[in-house]
Task: structure prediction
Amino acid sequence: MKIHDVRRGAFAAALFLGLAFGLALPGAMSAARAEEIEVKIDNFTFAPQKLTVKAGTTVTWINEDDIPHTVVSTGHFRSKPLDTGDKFTFTFTTPGSFVYFCSLHPHMQASITVEATTGSLE
Amino acid sequence: MSAHDEDTADGVSRRKVLECMTWAGTGVLWTVAGGIPTSLGIMGEAAAQTSGMTFLQISDSHVGFDKPANPNALGTLEEAINKVKALPARPAFMIHTGDITHLSKEKEFDDAQKIISQAGLDVHYVPGEHDIIDDERGRLYRDRYGKNTKGAGWYSFDSNGVHFIGLVNVVDLKGGGLGTLGDEQLAWLENDLKGKSASAPIVVFAHIPLWVVYETWGWGTDDGAKALALLKRFGSVTVLNGHIHQVMQKVEGNVTFHTARSTAFPQPAPGSAPSPGPLKVPDDKLRGLLGIASVTFKPGSERLAIVDQPLQG
Result:
C-alpha cells in the first residue's frame, strides 16, 4: 500500500527527528506540522462552519459574541465556557471527521475534517 | 404597564385571564385561582385580589453579565428585588427559573444570593444552562440549591393546594438538539404525578420553554411533549419558563404556557435578529424590557392570574 509506505516513511523521519532533538515522538510530529487555523464564533455561528485541515493542525476558536459559548466534540474535546474574547485551542493529530457544537446553544454546530499528512516533513 | 399581547390565547375564558398579562419585566406575579395560575396584569391589580395565594417568578438574572446590553446586571436584579419588596401583597414564595449566574462562578452565585435573599422569601430554583458551566458541570449549583432534589436538581412540592414541579432541561444537551429532560426525569415525573387527582392544579417550571417557541434558535425542549403528555389528564396546568428573556404565552387545552422577562438583558423576538444574542436598546428603554412576574391562585376559581411587571414603565 502506497499510503502505508508513505506513513512508514514519515514515521521513520519523525523518529529520527525525535531522537535527534531528544523529544517525545508525538511532540516532534506536531512540531513538524505547525499549521494554525482560526475559527470565529460570531452571532451564534462557527465560521467557517466546515473546515478541512491536515493532521497536526492547531485550531483556535475565538468567541466574538456577547454571550459565552463552548466548543464540544463528544468524546474528543471540550472547552471551558468562553466569554467574550476568550479562546480555545485544540491540535488535531488523528485523521477523521469531528462534529462539534456549543453545549450552551446546541443548535450551533460545525465540523472539521482532518486528513492524513502526506508524510513529507519539512 | 405597557402593551398587551394576547394574540396567542385561543380560549375565550383563557383570553379573559390572559388579557391581564402585560409584557413587563423583572418578575411575573402569579395568582392561583381555583386551579389555574393566572398572571395578573398589574402588580397593583394583583394586590387588590388579596383572597388568593400569590407567588412570584423571577428569571435570568445573569449575575456577572457586564456587556453593553446591560453593564450592571446585579444592579437591575436589585431593582427587581426592590419591586418584590414593595409589593402591597406579600407573595408566599418565589421561583427562579434559571440563569441565576452568567458563568457559574462562585462569586456570581454569592452576589445573586445576597441580593435575592433581601426579598425575605423562600426561593425555589431550577438551573439554567449558564448555572452549570463550572468545571464540575453543575456542582456549584447543586451544592447550593440541590438539597432535597433528584438528578440534576428536579423536585416537586405542594403549596396552598397547588402541586409545583421544578424540572431541569439544560443538562447534557446534544449537538443539534433543544433542551432535554431525559428519560430518568420523565420516569420520575410520571411517578410524581401518580395518584394525584386530575383536579389538582399543577404548576411546572423549568428554564428552557417546554414547548417549541423557535427551533432555529434552540428555544424549545426536545422531549417537552412527553412531559406534557403526562400532564394531559389534569384540568389545570401552568408551565412557567425563562430563557428567552421576553414574555410569551400560549394556551393549549388545559395548559397555559408563559415565559418571564429577564432581570438582566432583553433578547430579540424570534427571527427578528441574526442571532438570539443580548439586545442592546437605548438606556432609557432597558428597564421597560426587564421585569418580574406574579401569579395568584384563588381557591374556587379556574385559573391562575399572571402579572408581568417591568422594572420601569
Summary: Chain A touches chain B through 23 residues (CB under 8 Å). The radius of gyration of chain A is 16 Å. The first strand of chain A starts at residue 36 and ends at 42.
